[in-house]
Amino acid sequence: MPAAGTKAPAFALPNQDGKKIKLSDFKGKTVVLFAYPKAATSG
User: Fold this and answer.
1) For the purposes of burial, counting CB atoms within 10 Å of the CB of 30, is it exposed (0-12), middle (13-18) or buried (19 or more)?
2) CA-wise closest residue to 9 among 19, 20, 21, 23
3) Is the pLDDT of residue 1 over 80?
4) What pLDDT is attached to residue 4?
5) Number of C-alpha atoms within 13 angstroms, CB side, residue 12?
6) Residues 6+ apart with CB under 8 A from 2
7) What does the pLDDT look like over 12-27, one tens digit per residue?
């Protein structure tokens, strides 16, 4: 797990509308990335 304050690697993911969003689209802005790792799993 990266330490707090570590820069994230470049990545792109689809948003809720299927549009590809890149981390670089938010350059100069504060970004909080939150994931639900078990959301797509059974149980």
Assistant:
1) exposed
2) 23
3) no
4) 83
5) 7
6) 8
7) 999 889 999 999 999 9
Smallest CA-to-CA distance from 31 within 1, 11, 18 is with 11
Distance of CA 43 to the CA centre of its chain: 24
Cα(13)–Cα(19) distance, integer angstroms: 8
* pLDDT for the residue 18: 93
- Residues 11-19: contacts with CB under 8 Å, at least 24 apart: none
Beta bridge partners of 32: none
Owner of token pair 């670089």: 24
